[in-house]
Amino acid sequence: MRIYDIILKKRYGGELTDEEISFFVTSASNGDIEDYQITALLMAICFNGMTERETATLTMCMAHSGDTVDLSSIKGYTVDKHSTGGVGDKTTLIVAPIVAALGGKVAKMSGRGLGHTGGTVDKLESIEGFQTTLSGADFLSQVNSIGLSVIGQSGDLAPADKKLYALRNDTATVDSIPLIASSIMSKKLAAGSKGIVLDVKTGSGAFMKSVEESEALAKAMVSIGKSAGRDTVAVITNMDIPLGNAVGNSLEVIEAAEALKGNGCEDLTAVCIELASNMLTLVTGKDKDTCVSMARGAIADGSALGKFKEMVEAQGGNPEWIENTDLFPRAEHSFEIKAEYDGYIKSMDAEKIGITSLLLGAGRNKKSDVLDFSAGIILNAKTGDKVEKGGVIATLYANDSDKFADACQKFSEAVTFCDTPVKKQPLIYATVK
Ligand code: URA
Predict the structure, then answer these.
(1) Is 180 in the pocket of ligand 1 (CB under 6 A)?
(2) What residues make up the domain containing 408?
(3) Choice between 12 and 175, residue whose per-residue pLDDT is larger
(4) Residue 204 shares a structural domain with residue 104
(5) What CATH number has the domain bearing residue 104?
(6) Is the beta carbon of 206 within 6 A of some atom in ligand 1?
(7) At what angle do helices 288-300 and 303-314 cross, to 10 degrees?
(8) Most C-beta atoms within 10 A of its C-beta, which of 118, 231, 293, 399?
């Protein structure tokens, strides 16, 4: 078999066989084909797409290109959740404890932030002492004893995806639905859970800017999950506006702790209940409305907050910080951004808000950048809110006050105003099963 023929076939819109896809993934992982040949095929896939079968085969080949996590020693139903990435997205910190408090087993590997989006691992590491690296045995044992553990990606999970993703990033071949779907699902399948709930973000802060594209991505991922024997559901949620009011690592953990105490803002709580209840339908087999009540109940009776504290303690952090969030160190400097008009916020570009937070020190431009955990933004107003001239719409936080000038400039590019009331956007667009 020759990679040349495979590239040629896809270039003319042909359907690749399982053997051809397997040959491509193996050769790419082993270094038996050149990077320019890999990217030529990736570009041909971008132009000509892949069928459901081709996408499923590509995913399975990448999932099996390295380690796979064996969760069979965990007693109970294992359920994972994945977000396609957003700004202010601290849902894992709320949803995982809710589901664990109600009997689901959440053995979750999360990522770090890159670019304008945050990462759960960075957020958790803002809790002093919290360990996001555990041995495989400790990870499994913690999930068996308390029902949840969230760690960074360990081992050599889906290395073929790592190789392809790096090349896609540099060759304008990221935004292809079969390539995104196979990339995400290869890692989810390798991570081992029986149930998978996908939070597919849509809007200015998301990979997929339109609901139609997001729905197509959701369908592709659900189809892959099902064909691999996993119970898979996708929820399409709004990422045109940041989720919740906090953006930045410790600020988001504080907001998540408040949400678990029942003090969460409306949009954050609604998305978390939607995700948690979908996970609970898989875990319990009960209907969605019942699972919504169960999820709300776990916040109201304190059991979800208790689970979060148990996880923090089990992974070396101080659970007192979750009970009393005043214990988190605060940034030395803050800067208030005030409205320049009387009127309404017409739009708030989530990607630009994410970049504002990055410029304050909360995110990375490159992998080796060191984070300022207490840097970030608290939003006092969001799209649709009425504002008065001189009223504070956001406060920026940083330990290095030199960062405010660029950050303020970026924030001002993110927000537009108008004189007339603005229609609120939906938070949840669709569920794909
Ligand atoms: N996230 C991934 O893991 N892969 C993609 O291709 C896009 C987003």
Answers:
(1) yes
(2) 330-418
(3) 12
(4) yes
(5) 3.40.1030.10
(6) no
(7) 70
(8) 118
